[in-house]
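Pasting two entries for a bug report.
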Amino acid sequence: MAYRKRQFWLGIIGCGLLVSLLFGCATLKEATREFAGISTKALEDNRGKAIKKTFNYDYFTCQTKTLGVLKDLGAYVYAKNTSKDLIAFYLSEKDTTPVGLFFTEIDFSHTQIEVSSPSTYAKELIAEKVFLAIESSVSLDKIEEKIK
C-alpha cells in the first residue's frame, strides 16, 4: 500500500515538473528572442496605444503595399507573423527602434492597420509615411476607368 502511495505522489510531482517545464520553455523562448533582438512582445504590449487607420483595400493589397513602402523607407523587416497578422521591423539597419504593423481584415474590401511601437516618435513617423503612401496610391477603379 505504501508503495502505491509513493508511486502516486511521484507521478503527481513528475506531471507537475513536466507542466512547469513546458510553460517555462515559452518564457525561455521569449527571453531568447529578446536577447537576439527579434522579440515582438513590446509591440504586442503597446498595441493598445497603436495608431489605427482603415483603408479601402483588401488584406493582401494592404500588406503588399505596406511591404513596398517599408522597402522604400529602408526599414529592416525582422518578423512576419501570419498568425498574429504582424509585420515587425526596425526603422533601418542602424536604427533598431522596433515598430509593428498589425493588419485586421474588416471585410473583403477594408483592412485596418495598427502601428505599434514603444517609441512614440517611431510610431507617428511610420504611421504618417505608411498611411500617406497607401492613401496616395491610384485606386484600382481609377486604373480601370483610364483603360476604358
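Entry 2 (this is the one that rendered wrong in the viewer):
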Amino acid sequence: MQGTTLLWGTANPEGMRNYNGVYLSTDDIRDMIVQVDESNRRGNPMPVHVEHKGVSVGRVLTAWEHQGSLECVLELNDRVLEGSIGSEFVRAGICRDLSMGYTLDVKHSDKGKKDILLWGRKRLKEISIVKRGARPRCHIHGVSH
C-alpha cells in the first residue's frame, strides 16, 4: 500500500503462567489481542508511537499469539512527517525493537498486618518502535519495502 510501511514484530515475549504482576501473563496476552480487535472494530485503532512519545505515527493492524508471545503487524503512515521518520528509523536499523505501553489496574487489600497489592486488568494504550526494548526478544522481524 503506497504511503504506508508495514512492520511485523514481537511486542511481548512469552507470557508467564499462573502469574499476577506487572508483566504479562498468558491470559493478559490473549486479552491484549481482544483489545486490538475491539479497537479496530470500533474504528479507533491502537496507535503506534516512536519511543512512547509524540503523536501517533501509525496503527496496530492485527495481533496474535505465536508460541506464547504477542505478535503484531503495524502500519506506519508515511504520508505524515512523523510516520515517514519512523519508517526511516526502522529501515536504517535505528529502531529495531517493539515496546508496549499499557496501564495496570491496582488495588490495595489490607490482609491482616500486610498491605497486599492486587493486580487487575492491563489495558493496552499503544505499541512503540524503539531503539532498545525493555523486554527480551521483542524485535521487529520484517519491514515492507
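Dev reply: Rendering is fixed now. As a check, the viewer should reflect this: Residues 98 and 129 are 5 Å apart (CA to CA).
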